[in-house]
Specification:
The protein has 604 residues and is α/β, with parallel strands linked by helices. Helices cover 50% and strands 9% of the residues. The protein contains 26 helices and twelve strands. α3 runs antiparallel to α4, α8 packs across α9 and α14 packs across α15. The chain starts with 5 loop residues before the first helix and ends in a 13-residue tail after the last helix.
């Protein structure tokens, strides 16, 4: 007997053998049990998810000699005949090759005849979206009111191509991609039945490459069996057959990018391409790898099974920061989108790798890492400190200013009333330390600040600002705050202020810092914009404000009062500073700022 492919040999013959799609199986079984079987079903979903298989099992369950039954016996003559394609009552039609109106008219002529051996005549029309418009029109009336003994099961991967008149006449079932775990379990069963030895990594790679299709997984497994001459199928065998790249090579390539070793990175990429790997698949594999790195670095979902997991992966993940990953994902995604319309796919990939090695971009990412680390460290120190109230200390950044003037100390004395009485301190507490003292953490941007700009918006001023936006971004591309700002969207402009939408709270707070605020105002006014203020809003917050404003604005109400909403962004902070002096002199200055009962000197 000729060899039967694995996906045919292991095609499910009963409902309980189907992998996944439990919501559909339960619905069909209940319909059979309650005698509420519909006259037309539409099975739609990705390839290899069991549409045609379930249609045949449904036909067997309805026509079984012991049925209709929620599970076909698979032993009687009718069940065996349907399985072998020898029962005329179950007709399977390939709409890709029988898509004309004449084919459907011929089918319509046979519908009126009673079943030969079973209880129902079941018509399974595969790839039904391939039918012509004339064929759909010929099918409409029969599909709407077929004889009682006829059931239509339509299967398609592209339901959006079907006319609404067809969709409305069918019960629709959407098949889902099969989960990785379900595919793995099925492959393990097949490997055991076929007595095939295969490593866990290799089996996992097959399931991963199948992209949710059980038929694809079995076909690739079948191909690996034919390819491998060793007693055991390994990961290298699967990668050679599937065209994917090894995660060891991905780590080697990305490590070179981290180290800004452009020549090494291009050489590694060239070696990968020489193996005949497809460019889009290389990019997809790298994106999936970076996705796993992010999952690993996120403690909340660390237990979720990763696509890649070994010591090399863990070591690499621990040595790379999230900003690097986000930057690379943007670069790779842009390249993948652009190469769809180009014949020079390799060039786009090489340029993407070179861009990932860009020193300037990496310096920016490193700066973000340092800022984030600094903020975390300061936050830890402040949380453990009992000397000052948390509400009077800004934990945003460390400064290195000059020693304060008498005016600075005067400002400090004005806010000392807010300082909570400290526990006894020693000279060590006054050793080199620089802190920024805020006027108040409650001094945050409010909805009234935003409302003022929105209600005084100027179309002319916005057009003027938009006209110089590109010039600002080009001229001051090396200014960190401007780089963040130009990646946002200007959402409102008044005569002397504007609102910009940024991705998240972190970016907003950085741009609103005092030194950045002063610099940005100065830059904008170089272009005669007369800007005196600006506000940064996180994207999520702006979406709510925009909807509220849009709903309330009208010609009768041109200046609506918006609902209160917490913005969560601090206004610019004009700092006072305390810096190191000689300990003796500093004691004299500090003692002047506190009442005698607020400070106690401990001799050590």
């Amino acid at each position: 007997m000729a060899y039967i492919a694995l996906y045919r040999a292991y095609r499910p013959q009963k409902f309980n053998e189907v992998v996944g799609q439990q919501h559909i199986i339960k619905t069909l079984q209940n319909a059979i049990a309650l005698n509420k079987v519909a006259h037309a079903y539409l099975f739609c979903g990705p390839r290899g998810t069991g549409k045609t298989t379930l249609a045949k099992i449904m036909a067997k369950a309805l026509n079984c000699e012991h049925g209709p039954s929620i599970e076909p016996c698979d032993e009687c003559e009718i069940c065996s005949g349907i399985q072998k394609g020898m029962i005329s009552d179950v007709v399977e039609i390939d709409a890709a090759s029988n898509n004309g109106a004449d084919d459907i008219r011929a089918l319509r002529d046979t519908v009126k005849y009673l079943p030969a051996v079973g209880k129902y005549k079941v018509y399974i029309i595969d790839e039904v979206h391939m039918l012509s418009n004339a064929a759909f029109n010929a099918l409409l009336k029969t599909l709407e009111e077929p004889p009682k003994h006829v059931i239509f099961i339509l299967a398609t991967t592209e339901p959006y191509k079907l006319p609404n008149t067809i969709l409305s006449r069918c019960q629709r079932f959407d098949f889902q991609s099969i989960s990785l775990e379900d595919i793995l379990k099925r492959l393990e069963i097949v490997a055991k039945e076929e007595n095939i030895k295969i490593t866990e990594d290799a089996l996992y790679q097959i399931a991963l490459s199948a992209e949710g299709g059980m038929r694809d997984a079995l076909s690739l497994f079948d191909q690996c069996i034919s390819y491998c001459v060793n007693p055991e199928i390994t990961l290298d065998d699967v990668l050679a057959v599937s065209g994917n790249i090894s995660y060891f090579k991905i780590i080697e390539l990305l490590s070179a990018c981290i180290g800004n070793e452009e020549a090494k990175a291009v050489t590694i990429l060239d070696n990968i391409l020489k193996e005949g790997k497809e460019v889009p698949r290389i990019i997809n594999d790298i994106i999936l790898f970076l996705r796993d790195v992010l999952l690993y670095k996120n403690d909340a979902i660390i237990e979720q099974k990763l696509m890649f997991s070994n010591q090399s992966f863990i070591a690499f993940s621990n040595n790379i920061a999230k900003p690097h990953i986000y930057r690379w994902l943007d670069i790779l995604n842009d390249s993948l989108n652009q190469m769809r319309f180009s014949t020079q796919k390799r060039a786009f990939l090489e340029l993407a790798v070179l861009k990932m090695n860009d020193n300037k971009l990496n310096e920016e990412v490193n700066l973000l890492e340092r800022i984030e680390s600094l903020e975390n460290n300061i936050s830890m120190v402040m949380n453990n400190s009992n000397n000052f109230s948390n509400r009077n200390i800004i934990k945003e950044e460390t400064y290195i200013p000059s020693f304060p003037s008498s005016q600075d100390f005067k400002q400090f004395s004005e806010v000392k009333e807010d300082v909570i009485k400290a526990s006894p301190v020693t000279e060590e507490a006054f050793k080199p330390i620089v802190k920024e003292v805020a006027q108040s953490v409650d001094d945050e941007i409010t909805i009234r600040d935003i409302e003022k700009i929105l209600n005084n918006a100027s179309k002319e001023k916005r057009e003027k600002l938009n006209s110089v936006w590109y010039q600002i971004s080009e001229r001051y591309s090396n200014t960190f705050a401007i780089q963040i700002l130009v990646n946002g969207n200007i959402v409102a402009v008044s005569d002397d202020a504007f609102i910009v939408e940024l991705q998240d709270v972190g970016f907003c707070n950085r741009v609103m810092r005092y030194e950045n605020y002063v610099k940005i105002i100065e830059i904008f006014n170089e272009f005669d914009l007369n800007i005196k203020d600006y506000i940064c809003i996180p994207k999520a917050v702006w979406s709510k404000i925009r909807i509220d404003y849009k709903n309330k604005y009208s010609l009768e109400n041109p200046k609506p009062v918006l609902d209160d909403i917490k913005i969560g962004i601090k206004k610019r902070v004009i700092p006072s500073f305390i810096e190191e002096k000689k300990v003796e002199d500093e004691f004299e200055d500090v003692l002047k700022l506190f009442e005698d009962d607020q400070l106690k000197i401990v001799e050590e």
